[in-house]
Amino acid sequence: MPLELTxxxxxxxxxxxxxxxxxxxxxxLFLGGLVAGLMIIAGVRLLLVQPRERQAMVCCTxxxxxxxxxxxxxxxxxxxxxxxxxxxxRLYLTFEPTSPMSWGSWILLLVYPALLANxxxxxxxxxxxAAKRFPVLVTISDFILARPRVVIGIGLGNMVLGVxxxxxxxxxxxxxPARPLWNTAILGPxxxxxxLSTAAALLxxxxxxxxxxxxxxxFADFLLSAxxxxxxxxxxxxxxxxxxxxxDNSFLTVELGLLMLFLIGMVTSAAASQQAAxxxxxxxxxxxxxxxxxxxxILTPLLLQFLELQNRIRHTLAPAVLVLVGGLALRFILVFAxxxxxxxxxxxxP
Amino acid sequence: xxxxxxxxxxxxxxxxxxxxxxxxxxNNVPEGYNRDxxxxxxxGAYPRPQLEIRSERCNHCANPPCVYCCPTGASHVHAQGGxxxxxxxxxxxxxxxxxACPYNARFIHPDGYVDKCTFCLHRVTQGLQPACVSVCPTHxxxxxxxxxxxxxxxxxxxxxxxxxxxxxxxxxxxxxxxx
Amino acid sequence: MPxxxxxxxxxxxxxxxxxxxxxxxxxxxxxxxxxxxxxxSGVHRIPTFCDLCFWKCGAIASVRDGxxxxxxxxxxxxxxxxxxxxxxxxxIGAYSDPDRLRTPLIRTRExxxxxxxxxxxxxxxxYIAERMQRIxxxxxPESLALFSHGLGGTFLKHTFKAFGSPNxxxxxxxxxxxxxDVGFRLTFGEEVGSPERxxxxxxxxxxxxxxxxxxxxxxxxxxxxxxxxxRGASLIVVDPRxxxxxxxxxxxxxxxxxxxxxxxxxxxxVIVTEKLYDADYVAKYGYGFEQFAASLVPSTPEWxxxxxxxxxxxxxxxxxxxxxxxxxxxxxPGRHVNWNGDDAQRSRAxxxxxxxxxxxxxxxxxxxxxxxxxxxxxYPDYPKPAKPKVDNPDHRYPFAHEAxxxxxxxxxxxxxxxxxxxxxxxxxxxxxxLPNQAETIKAIQQLDLLVVIDVIPSxxxxxxxxxxPESIYLERHxxxxxxxxxxxxxxxxQPVIASPHDQKPNWWIARKLAEKLGLGAFYPWQDIExxxxxxxxxxxxxxxxxxxxxxxxGPRQPLYFATGAPAAFGTPxxxxxxxxxxxxxxxxxxxxxxxxxxxxxxxxFRLLFGRAPVHSFSRTQSNRILxxxxxxxxxxxxxxxxxxxGLKSGDRVCLKNQDGVxxxxxxxxxxxxxxxxxVYLVHGFGHTSRGLRHAFGKGAGDAQxxxxxxxxxxxxxxxxxxxxxxxxxxxxx
Lengths: 350, 179, 733
Ligand SMILES: Nc1nc2c(c(=O)[nH]1)N[C@H]1C(S)=C(S)[C@@H](COP(=O)(O)OP(=O)(O)OC[C@H]3O[C@@H](n4cnc5c(=O)[nH]c(N)nc54)[C@H](O)[C@@H]3O)O[C@H]1N2
Ligand SMILES: Nc1nc2c(c(=O)[nH]1)N[C@H]1C(S)=C(S)[C@@H](COP(=O)(O)OP(=O)(O)OC[C@H]3O[C@@H](n4cnc5c(=O)[nH]c(N)nc54)[C@H](O)[C@@H]3O)O[C@H]1N2
Ligand code: SF4
Ligand code: SF4
Ligand code: SF4
Ligand code: SF4
Ligand code: SF4
Ligand SMILES: [Mo]
Prior knowledge:
- The structure holds three protein chains of three kinds.
- By secondary structure, chain B is of the alpha+beta class.
- Chain B is built from six helices and ten strands, in the order βαββαββαββααβαββ.
- Chain B is globular and about 50 Å long.
- Chain C is of the alpha/beta class.
- In chain C, strands 5-4-15-14-13-6-7 form a seven-stranded mixed β-sheet, with helices on one face. Chain C has a six-stranded mixed β-sheet with strand order 21-23-22-27-20-24.
- Chains in contact: A-B, A-C, B-C.
- Chains A and B meet through strand 1 and helix 3 of A and strand 2, helix 2, helix 3 and strand 6 of B.
- The complex binds ligand MGD (2 copies), iron/sulfur cluster (5 copies) and molybdenum atom.
């Protein structure tokens, strides 16, 4: 029976299709996930490495350091999205247990010190210059390293908070069942593993850029020499590059699996969810989804890094860049398509 | 404890939008924005279609995702009648509640905060009917307390077939349509 | 005229008693409101009556801290019963409309170029008076015509009559209810009037032929309609479009446009042959029933079927349904009935059907209205015009009992029977309300003077030599509303808020103009309150009470024959004329005969039009509140047809009529709610006046596409449903 549904409502950002979130939220979710990944890796490494071990630098120091910056950028994006900015402090006058956003804002408050602690633990040997200028850094580092319990605490703290942050970026959306595309618990783990893969990729990229001479992509020279001159730092140990590629591949594999589960779940449930999935599978978002997220974002890097591990090809920036792009695309597509998905939409005539 | 509901008789409603105009003037809803609106649903084919006209607004859900997702408590369930309200001074404009509402009943006021139907609580507390109800020329809108079995809303829901919107969304909406 | 003799006159004593009674009631009502409104200090509630259409509902405007806030219905008012329609509720938008006219304007370029210079009132009125005198000198005062629609024109008409011109017309006759009034006068010797005397509230079976109540928002009618629906009254709706009313009907008859008379005749055939009519009523009040019955013999449902597309069984079933509930079966006379040129006869057929059902003068049919006796203001006698009215020379249209706008237009064009050289246009947008805009513009080109008094820069104002900005209804006094209605009452319009710019009320303009024309003697009163107070006092009512309550009600009078309303009929025979000697003498069918409607070019759709609840004609599209409800109109196209044409809702098209006129781009509403052989537009959109910045070019105008019209031979009404359009692709923007 034909159905003709019209509405006289025309609220900006709501009609004809919901579009209240622009680029800010996907960027925030992407960076949030990335930082979550960096924290988990940092935490793990912190627990595994021996004190004064050089490999510590990339994962436990540079990673968190970069994390702090990226997180701040993410928070900025989030802030830019608010339409009643002057009241942002209201977030911290209350805790709303039912609101993922409230959880998120408090988690973020803890993430900073955790990342900082992780950074400080091995900062002196990573950036001796800084250590020279501020001896206190050395004191702190020594203080921490002298106390295994504290190190473990910092490591675990980063892992736990990292997982929380990663899950939160997904739950933020899945707590909005009004949009069928988000109406699934898988988004949490999905974004968590996407975050881990992007994090591993980023660290891998940093390593690759710091490779010796001919192994390193030319354009990295300038960057590194500059950094090196400033920090009198020693190049990090490239030996964990394969480890990172391996980790990244496993993360990507899990991510792929979760994506498949996500889609299967959609397609096999209510009509609204099927229409939602259709947005990704065959609808307006199909092209970017299949090409950017699945093809270039997951399958290609999987292959490349597999070959890297087989030592068939050199470690390059390529997989890292692809994974990062894929991760960002995933957030954009899910946020935009999600808003477009709906239970029932009425056409609005002029 | 009262539980305010709206019961709208689609048999009488003619879709004149008086309820929308009245809301605009009573509540200074800015041009181009709607707290309430009319939806026209046509099923079947000419010459025997069926037409249902509905005056729609926030359903003041008993299970309101918009409230659950609000990080500041700006969106809340008011003690009086379970009305869902937004405290402008608490709202940061994160728009989570807009995305959370399956009915798209909320909007961002040009001043930045989120706005929506209040069931005209400012009138109700004065013993008046909501503006839209009080203006309706066909007397097809009824507002009252579901807890009170004598209220005409209770009586109407007792006596007549009715439905609410998108029950599958699970929000337990409290605006009912008599068919 | 008998209609008058029947109005119940109110005894002074009764009035004062009642006034007191009302006063106390009111203070209570308002007390309640005030008690409730406690807290909202600085809110003043001032009663007046609405002017968004001609229903004149009692309203109460709230001014909060000196700013206009909202308008609500006056609970004391029997017309609105405390609830306005959406247009009334949105009335404050007329006050805040930024496109309003602000000062008098005098034309500086060619007519229609909308180029003005601002002028003072003195300057503008001197200019007008001077040219009126010139025309009078050259052609006589009769060569000036006044087009005036609505109560606001009262004082301008007075000035005009004092000036010596009999030529005063409104589109409410030849373009609106004229055919209906004629059809009913010929049958019952009386009109249904406005507000219509239809007892919808008590009808057990309601038949709507076109009348799209619910979209047509005449307040009392809609409220009573809803009451009837609520009571479960049986509803029969005849309309080529599945109107809102149709969606509530027990029987919906998707009639082929323009063939209603065939259906009506078939209905009457069934009712007569099956002896379902009210025999006693017909015997008692009827005249010429036998001839009438005889002439119906051929009009079988089988005959009507191919004409109307309504199958014989449905015709019989609905006829029996009507008979089943008689006399509480109301076949609504409609209001805007200028459809196909057979309109007066079709309306007469509706009157006759009601007569068969015995609904005239019966509960649930047509009640007998009453009004209060409020004496006119004692003015000096008007000069006797030297020439007869110009609009209907030698009674070309013998049954036109009101002036024909289009008749004045014809005279202006042809100079026959005598030239018309000046138009004064008050509150009517002739370019939107008269058919064939080109003809109107040609006529305007013949004029020495065109004055338009309006509140916004309407299309007609765009052609004026002088434009005068009037204060809107919330800013002025007007003539009293002495309503002829279910229960008699007198209502007052009084200012709620001051005019924002240099606008003036009609009475001030009319009075000033009279002075400038040397007719000051016709305005013994200085200020309108003085005039109003005088009339109210003469009626034995208390002006203070009127000001406080907005209206004073008179005692109810018997509404039905059964309860004492006299069953007298103002026809020559003094009876209900089933067979009309009047018509016969004038050479028309004494009993209506069906004439098939003009057919359109193949592939074209008949252009139908009507109302949207949130707009009044062409006057509300720039009201920001109401335009926010509906910004533009869309063209209704049958869903199947749309599919065939590859169109979907929201697509833009242009409408091209049989004479090649092409409309603005307009959105398609592909819907299962209309026949495949016609399209439908809400009237009043597609504004072409650049001054209407907000409404300009939004939607498409039916008026623009109505280049053809068919004139009703009985009374000169202009049928407009005789135009056909095709849908042309509009290049995307
Ligand atoms: N909101 C609002 N309400 C108004 C007005 C307004 O401007 N706005 N104007 C008021 C005034 S002055 C008037 S006169 C009335 C007019 O209101 P009505 O008297 O109801 O006017 P109609 O021309 O009958 O309304 C058009 C309807 O007739 C149908 N129709 C068209 N052709 C045919 C036909 O051949 N046969 C049949 N059976 N139906 C047909 C159309 O589909 C449409 O539904 O509205 C009044 N009420
Ligand atoms: N094509 C077409 N023509 C029609 C109709 C139709 O449906 N379609 N309907 C017919 C019917 S039923 C009728 S009753 C007539 C109505 O015909 P009109 O009475 O001409 O109706 P409007 O087009 O609204 O024009 C009213 C004008 O008065 C102005 N006005 C409004 N308020 C005031 C005021 O307070 N003071 C002054 N001075 N001016 C004011 C408005 O701005 C507008 O320019 O049209 C008839 N003609
Ligand atoms: S005012 Fe009443 S009749 Fe008009 S649309 Fe709203 S609910 Fe329906
Ligand atoms: S309708 Fe939407 S806004 Fe209103 S309570 Fe329900 S979920 Fe919240
Ligand atoms: S937009 Fe305002 S009301 Fe809505 S969730 Fe965010 S803070 Fe709460
Ligand atoms: S209850 Fe009040 S706020 Fe809600 S729609 Fe009606 S008028 Fe608007
Ligand atoms: S019917 Fe509506 S517009 Fe007309 S007078 Fe009444 S309230 Fe005003
Ligand atoms: Mo009319």
